[in-house]
Amino acid sequence: MMEQTWRWFGPDDVVKISDICQTGATGVVTSLHHIPYGEVWTVDEIRKRQKQIADDSRGALSWSVVESLPVSDAIKLGEGDLEADFGNYRQSLRNLAACGITTICYNFMPVIDWTRTDLSVPLPGGARTLRFDVVKCAAFDCFILKRRGAEDDYGSGVVDDARRWIDASTLQQRSELFRSIMVGLPGAFKRYEIDEFSDILKVFSGLGRNGLLANLRRFLKEVVPTAEEVGARLAIHPDDPPRPLFGLTRAIVDAESLDHAVTSCPSPSNGITLCTGSLGAGRQNDLSAIARRFAGHIHFAHLRNVKKEPNGSFNEAPTLEGDVDMPDIVETLLGEQEVRQRAGRTDWRIPFRPDHGQELLDDIGKATHPGYPAIGRLKGLAELRGVISGISHARRRRES
After folding, report:
1. How many domains does the chain have?
2. Secondary structure element (H or E) that encloses residue 384, with its range
3. Residue 339 domain-assigned?
4. What are the backbone angles phi and psi of residue 299, rounded to the nearest 5°?
5. 71-127 pLDDT, tens per residue?
6. Catalytic one among 33, 237, 297, 299?
7. Is 355 a catalytic residue?
8. Nearest Cα to Cα of residue 243 among 162, 317, 134
9. One of 275, 297, 363, 369 is an active-site residue; which one?
10. 98 lies in which domain range?
11. Active-site hit among 56, 302, 363, 369
12. Torsion angles phi and psi, residue 145, rounded to 5
């Protein structure tokens, strides 16, 4: 069985540790969101969070995976004296390992993390889901943000549709669109107003994809040796969605860029987070092929599904009903676990968590972090547990 984990956003999360105890998960995925990006995570702060998880769960849960240990925008930009930033990251890795936490998810997305235009789209059965609508994204970029050259990043048909949306929208709808885009990762430390957002985008405007990838290589060469030293496993998260946004280039969008990340600094400590939803939103990506190709580098998995549209829009879909062949992904992960077990690795289990769940039943209207309601994720975890159990049973029968 893979390690079942659950994302928790700390003491202010509407979903409490006592709720997580009822899900069947054994590991908690969390972060010290109250510490600003780039500062050291001290042993005292790490142990305080561990104690809270253990005490509130009566020992049933432990802090299994860090998501995320943030990389500062200064490192992503790659300018100035970065030794303090690198030094702080290395020290945080040492402190986490000293507390027994060695799986570290991070991303290399500048300025904003995951991006959606709608946080609660009604579905025919009454559930609600997250959505990325490329027309609304273009409407914000071209006509609210008014970024220079934005129209060149979208097809003419999309821009025409975006203009029509703007013309028909209310002030409240435009404000809601901006709020949705700014949500990013629910634990993000920084929020921007429109003028601040425009200014920070200009700072990154000259950083092309080659420059961002070069800065990623530099980061890995600075921190991977420390991860090796303390037995930590770094797992880069793909960009979500896997496309440039608001003039910001993206680093991890497909198999080629994943290969670049793992080969830039070859090491068992330099791996990936397989996020089937982030990569699955890219029409160019074959998730089953990616999982097989990078199986040996997968340190952590986010298992969710998406339903794509021809123009680049997509909805978050039920775990087993989207474009990603989830049973095939699970089969690959279970096979990789067997390879690691046969090799005698003590860390052979791959932690996974159900990702962005739909709002269902009593969760509708609750102030949960967007994409992280309890019931929707519990449904996803139950479905994944069923897939894992079914495939594991079939494997045992074949071997007997």
Report:
1. 2
2. helix 374-399
3. yes
4. -100, -15
5. 999 999 998 999 999 999 999 999 999 999 999 999 999 988 899 999 999 999 999
6. 237
7. yes
8. 134
9. 275
10. 3-107+220-237+252-399
11. 302
12. -70, -35
